[in-house]
């Protein structure tokens, strides 16, 4: 896909990886529709895209809410005249151990609400936005691209029952959609980042960050631009579909 004047929707576009991918794609001539919950952050992302010489609009919406998502994608399609791409990027963490067992006290640790809230955003949100984008792409006769953000945690990770399950589910949806939507000329891929410097990972304990940095052959955390570069590659490479690109500095070799 040549990105010039293509309309790309990014959920969670108000900060972090979503913002970095938006600015990178704007530099290649794409027009951006950014979805998030935080208006101030969205306005800052739009300003950066305009500085890059492209155009963007923002939409306040919760990706877990079906009617919110339906209305937002209809509005985006009407505002821009169609949809060519989607990056399902909005995601949250609510880490915690599954059960507790200390000093003879055994019990449940991760609450159902803690589990469900992560599934709602990271999995149901991806389902709802992906479905809406696919309908608009097919209706508009666009050979679109959908990218879903997974994570290296998809293989299972201590304290991340909820997050790991959601990110493994994202890969299963990616492959299913690649098979189902290929006949409409729509490609679907996933990115599984390692630990990248954003607000999400700034919350990490410093000793944990240091340990992770030492474990990587490249000896540092990743930068948001390095993930943005991968998203651009998936959009542009017409032979890419149904696969997960791992960008983790060698952490999971
Ligand atoms: P971030 O927390 O900096 O940004 C996430 C954005 O999603 C925020 O702007 C937030 O407001 C938005 N969001 C959250 N819930 C939403 C909802 N219900 N509706 C709409 N928007 C919502 O996170 P990030 O580090 O930029 O990560 C982006 C994606 O990449 C996430 O899916 C994350 O799981 C994934 N990821 C990140 C890393 C990392 O190291 N940063 C690693 C692997 C995967």
UniProtKB/TrEMBL annotation:
Gene3D superfamilies: NAD(P)-binding Rossmann-like Domain. GO terms for molecular function: oxidoreductase activity. Pfam families: adh_short_C2. InterPro entries: KR_dom (IPR057326), NAD(P)-bd_dom_sf (IPR036291), Sc_DH/Rdtase_CS (IPR020904), SDR_fam (IPR002347). Residues 6-199 form the Ketoreductase domain. PROSITE patterns: ADH_SHORT. Keywords: Oxidoreductase. Coiled coil: none annotated. SUPFAM superfamilies: NAD(P)-binding Rossmann-fold domains (SSF51735). Signal peptide: none annotated. It comes from the Bacteria. PANTHER family: 17-BETA-HYDROXYSTEROID DEHYDROGENASE 14-RELATED, SHORT-CHAIN DEHYDROGENASE/REDUCTASE. Belongs to the short-chain dehydrogenases/reductases (SDR) family. This is SDR family oxidoreductase.
